[in-house]
């Protein structure tokens, strides 16, 4: 089954929980200054650690009979950063190959996504690109993911509308299904001040082949709930197009969360209940975790949604 068919025929799809934070805290593996965890597959114990974490999330999907989405740890592996540290296109191809190896060892319905991100700091909206330059900049990575044979593309924690538009243009050209995930404040806006509704409207009108859906990641469900409750986001467009969250376990704003030295964690039941409350304001189809989550959080989120279907 293709990813699009999966998306259209399933009411709930499970996405992975945290990887980076867990690699640091549970395995003592630190991110590279430039490409973060994109090179983890080349480090001693890195691939094994990734497999252990992904397999925990895969087990949750299997227990709850849910399709599973996993993304490569390549948000920072853009053309500029990859070249800076002496890697080449193989870092993208090898990350996809690693996930394919994992999928070959499972017996669940699993889809592989190529994770991309903004050029600058997603938590501060600095060094953002305008649409034309963003399209050119992100096409390198998008095209390599296409070459590697991913099932979908995923733009994570995107903070500014101009770069989102260019990213969508780059992804559109690949003919792969793609998802845009925003960095959102409780004010109902991206970090550059654009409302969720306006961001969706402007991206959809800038491309011929629209994103499969929109979502938000690295955000607590209660923060997203507040963001979606603003009248300017209580629109038919948002309800029709916004369908997912990769939740973190902290309610801190982006700047404080990014600079925090302590892991901000919350009870798995509390997080699951906050996730399900989002169904009051949107149709939630893709559910997963971000910073602070582990397999216990993802398990409780999945079982909560299954029991309340």
TrEMBL record:
<dbReference type="GO" id="GO:0046872">
    <property type="term" value="F:metal ion binding"/>
</dbReference>
<feature type="binding site">
    <location>
        <position position="291"/>
    </location>
    <ligand>
        <name>Zn(2+)</name>
    </ligand>
</feature>
<keyword id="KW-0489">Methyltransferase</keyword>
<keyword id="KW-0479">Metal-binding</keyword>
<feature type="domain" description="Hcy-binding">
    <location>
        <begin position="1"/>
        <end position="305"/>
    </location>
</feature>
<dbReference type="InterPro" id="IPR036589">
    <property type="entry name" value="HCY_dom_sf"/>
</dbReference>
<dbReference type="GO" id="GO:0032259">
    <property type="term" value="P:methylation"/>
</dbReference>
<feature type="binding site">
    <location>
        <position position="218"/>
    </location>
    <ligand>
        <name>Zn(2+)</name>
    </ligand>
</feature>
<feature type="binding site">
    <location>
        <position position="290"/>
    </location>
    <ligand>
        <name>Zn(2+)</name>
    </ligand>
</feature>
<dbReference type="Pfam" id="PF02574">
    <property type="entry name" value="S-methyl_trans"/>
</dbReference>
<dbReference type="InterPro" id="IPR003726">
    <property type="entry name" value="HCY_dom"/>
</dbReference>
<dbReference type="GO" id="GO:0008168">
    <property type="term" value="F:methyltransferase activity"/>
</dbReference>
<protein>
    <submittedName>
        <fullName>Homocysteine S-methyltransferase</fullName>
    </submittedName>
</protein>
<keyword id="KW-0808">Transferase</keyword>
<keyword id="KW-0862">Zinc</keyword>
């Amino acid at each position: 089954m293709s990813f699009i068919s999966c998306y259209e025929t399933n009411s709930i799809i499970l996405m992975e929980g945290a990887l980076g934070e867990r690699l640091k805290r549970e395995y003592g593996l630190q991110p590279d200054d430039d490409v973060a965890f994109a090179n983890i597959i080349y480090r001693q114990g890195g691939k094994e650690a990734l497999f252990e974490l992904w397999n925990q999330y895969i087990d949750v999907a299997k227990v709850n009979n849910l399709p599973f989405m996993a993304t490569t740890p390549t948000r920072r592996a853009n053309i500029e950063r990859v070249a800076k540290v002496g890697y080449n296109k193989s870092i993208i191809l090898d990350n996809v190959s690693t996930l394919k190896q994992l999928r070959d060892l499972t017996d669940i319905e699993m889809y592989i996504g190529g994770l991309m991100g903004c050029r600058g700091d997603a938590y501060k909206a600095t060094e953002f690109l305008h649409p034309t330059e963003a399209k050119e900049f992100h096409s390198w990575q998008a095209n390599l993911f296409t070459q590697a044979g991913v099932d979908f593309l995923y733009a994570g924690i995107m903070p500014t509308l101009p770069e989102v538009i260019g990213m969508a243009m780059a992804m559109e050209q690949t003919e792969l299904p793609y998802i845009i995930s925003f960095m959102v404040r409780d004010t109902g806006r991206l970090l550059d001040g654009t409302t969720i509704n306006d961001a969706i409207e402007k991206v959809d009108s800038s491309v011929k082949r629209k994103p499969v859906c929109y979502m938000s990641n690295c955000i607590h469900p209660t923060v997203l709930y507040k963001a979606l409750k603003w009248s300017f986001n209580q629109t038919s467009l948002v309800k029709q197009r916004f369908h997912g969250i990769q939740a973190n376990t902290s309610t801190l704003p982006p700047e404080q969360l990014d600079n925090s030295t302590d892991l901000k964690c919350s009870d798995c039941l509390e997080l699951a209940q906050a996730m399900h409350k989002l169904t009051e304001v949107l149709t939630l189809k893709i559910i997963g975790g971000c910073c602070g989550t582990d397999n216990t959080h993802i398990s409780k989120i999945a079982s909560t949604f299954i029991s309340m279907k």
